Design the sequence.
């Protein structure tokens, strides 16, 4: 009897173990499937706590959430550059020194521009008056109230990279479309009214929010907007890229010269209109030429060192960009159009320390050639 019982126990034991293993696999698959069911076909979260329920308004959701309810910033870093602690300390020190110079340059050049425009008059005087009256729109900012951090978005200046970073600061682990996902997630952290107050406070020296602004060479930014938005026809501009004829950069600049900068699409609107650093005070100025170092230093300064090793995440972008050949790029641009464009973006050049001597030389050459042609025609 005892032998039979032992045989029966020996026989049944592997089956139970197998059932236990199978059950574990089922549970694992169930957990995985839940992850998929939490997201729609566009890869955006549906039922996770990272987003509000569709049945609740954004404002009520914000009011009912405590800090404990909100997702915590994740610790998953963007691919590391394997910097040593000494390298990091040096980079941050270099950036902070340059950042002080950048902020001082903005203050000095804005003051000089307004003063000079009073004596020179003309179009620059119009720009100066517009700049002095212009307030950046709150919708161009992304706010993280937990860190008291505000970023003014300048399209075509690493906005895709920083949209992802902001999502990581919000605690998002799975990503859909960075920009739209970021805007929806922000509403869980701050109401529209409080966001407007936060942005308005940036005009004051005594302010609670740490602010960020990104800068890029104006012509490089225009060319990027032309390639990405005009040639690809993701933005249709009447009489420019609405027909079958392929638009040219010269025609794009002509369109810009013939219109008021306050009416431009945000992708090529000057930074003195979008974020207006002449009126609003920004703590950190990140430049595309030193983007990785600058962005990493900013993140370390706001206590997000785990996200500090940033790379340019735009799939069409390259970490090492080829210098633009301005002479070839502007070859077919008439001198009066180039002169007007340089006037419109003059403040962006001088505020952010971009030298336009080479562009002015190209302009003078064009003017000289035009005079010679006119003489020959006479």
Sequence:
């Amino acid at each position: 009897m005892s032998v039979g019982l032992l045989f029966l126990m020996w026989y049944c034991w592997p089956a139970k173990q197998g059932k236990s293993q199978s059950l574990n696999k089922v549970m694992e698959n169930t957990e995985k499937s839940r992850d998929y069911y939490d997201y729609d076909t566009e890869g955006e979260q549906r039922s996770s706590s990272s987003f509000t329920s569709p049945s609740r308004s954004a404002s009520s959701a914000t009011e009912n959430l405590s800090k404990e309810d909100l997702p915590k910033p994740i610790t998953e870093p963007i691919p590391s550059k394997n910097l040593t602690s000494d390298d990091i300390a040096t980079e941050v020190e270099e950036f902070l020194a340059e950042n002080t110079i950048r902020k001082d340059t903005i203050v000095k050049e804005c003051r000089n521009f307004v003063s000079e425009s009073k004596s020179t008059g003309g179009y620059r005087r119009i720009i100066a008056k517009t700049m002095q009256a212009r307030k950046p729109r709150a919708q161009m900012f992304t706010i993280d109230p937990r860190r008291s951090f505000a970023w003014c978005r300048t399209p075509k200046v690493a906005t895709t990279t920083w949209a992802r970073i902001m999502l990581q600061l919000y605690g998002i682990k799975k990503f859909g479309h960075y920009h739209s996902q970021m805007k929806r997630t922000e509403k869980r952290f701050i109401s529209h009214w409080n966001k407007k107050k936060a942005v308005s406070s940036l005009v004051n020296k005594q302010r609670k929010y740490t602010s960020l602004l990104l800068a890029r060479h104006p012509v490089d930014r225009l060319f990027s907007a032309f390639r990405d938005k005009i040639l690809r026809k993701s933005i249709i501009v009447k009489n420019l890229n609405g027909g079958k004829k392929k638009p040219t950069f010269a025609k794009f600049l002509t369109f810009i010269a013939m219109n008021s900068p306050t009416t431009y699409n945000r992708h090529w609107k000057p930074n003195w209109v979008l974020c207006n650093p002449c009126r609003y005070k920004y703590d950190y100025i990140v430049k595309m030429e030193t983007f990785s170092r600058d962005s990493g230093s900013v993140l370390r300064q706001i206590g997000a060192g785990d996200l500090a090793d940033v790379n340019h995440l735009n799939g069409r972008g390259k970490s090492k960009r080829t210098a633009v050949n301005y002479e070839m790029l502007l070859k077919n641009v008439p001198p009066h159009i180039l002169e007007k464009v340089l006037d419109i973006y003059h403040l962006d050049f001088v505020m952010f320390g971009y030298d336009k001597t080479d562009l002015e030389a190209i302009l003078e050459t064009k003017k000289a050639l035009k005079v010679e042609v006119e003489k020959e025609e006479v």
